[in-house]
Prior knowledge:
This protein is of the alpha+beta class. Among the domains are: about 100 residues; about 100 residues, Aminopeptidase. About 40% of the residues lie in helices and about 20% in strands. It has a 5-stranded mixed sheet with strand order 10-11-12-13-14, with helices on one face. It has a 3-stranded mixed sheet with strand order 1-8-9. A 3-stranded antiparallel sheet has the order 2-4-3. Strand 6 and strand 7 form a beta hairpin. The radius of gyration is 22 Å and the shape is globular.
Amino acid sequence: MGMVSLQRTSPAAALLSWRQVLAWRLNRQHLMEPASRRALVDVAERICGLHAQLMTSAELTLWARVKDLKRTDVSKALWERRDLVKLWAMRGTLHLLPARGFGTWQRALSTYDHYLRDHWLKYFDVTRAQLEKMSAAIGEALADRELTREELIAEVARLTRSKAQAEHLRSGWGSLLKPPSFQGRLCFAPSDGQNVRFTNPEAWLGGYEKPDRETARLDVVRRYLGVFGPASNADLARWWGITPPRARRLFEALGSDAVEVEVDGLRRWCLESDLAGLTAAEVDKNLRLLPMFDQYVVASSRDAEAVLADAYKPLVFRKSAWISAVVLVNGRIEGVWRHEIKGKRVVVTIEPFERLPRWAGPKITAEANSLARFFGKDLELVKPSG
């Protein structure tokens, strides 16, 4: 598909409000009407995977969107049915991606090239040739088996005939394992006790389709817009881990599939096919508790006060790329919350940024009770009075 250049002076395809945009995102992400348990994987696919740096966050991301979800449902989908695949994906962070259509994600991830830059190679004290040799050895070592990290290091040393090179795999958790993950040579397997194990996704899934890399990447951009749009160049750049100019070129490469709209005076990209839904979107009295690293927040528009007031951004987007659990009111981030398991109780503490509307109280209680059922615990709810 040819590159189409859209001028910033061209008329917007639609004039939208942030309230419409947030309502549309809530609906698209199953935060208005929950999905059924049997649609668990469909939900993961819809929201472009589950952030899994913490497995609890991945589980709770689905809890927020799937009715009557059991805590074991996610692990069963991942390790028993193999409907999900755990790997290093967007931005080099751990994700659970759907096995259905995995090839599209893998081929899109294979376009990553940041690890080939001189400063990256220098930081990890490897050459490009050494990295490629190690990555190929990892793919071969995992082709038909599951190995712990120690076993993988030993096998890479044997295949490369270089113990020194294999020892690089000990440095920094996952850093040198990410490139083979992007290349489709590595994913996670069930752990052996406390030891993480890896395998090859080809073997884990019994093969998968491998579309053209650029076609796959544009398909991922469409999926992104179809759930997180309307989005700016910076929004896509942050989510996919590229520069804003690269993000703009990807939007432009969608041709007539993507249009520019104006959201309360800010230019954003969306799919042309989503215009009608965006225009009609409405939300009223919707309150949700979203976990740490929820996709709604990870992919949010961070330059829009209508999404999150600037004064409270440090409470949500914290140091070391930590993202807090949030209180969502009609799609806007209006507070943070946390939970702690204490014996037979789960203590849920709500910290709104400002006074919440009167109708929010019962909805917070309902959300917290749902969380307690998910953990199989009694609820202790701590929230401001009034």
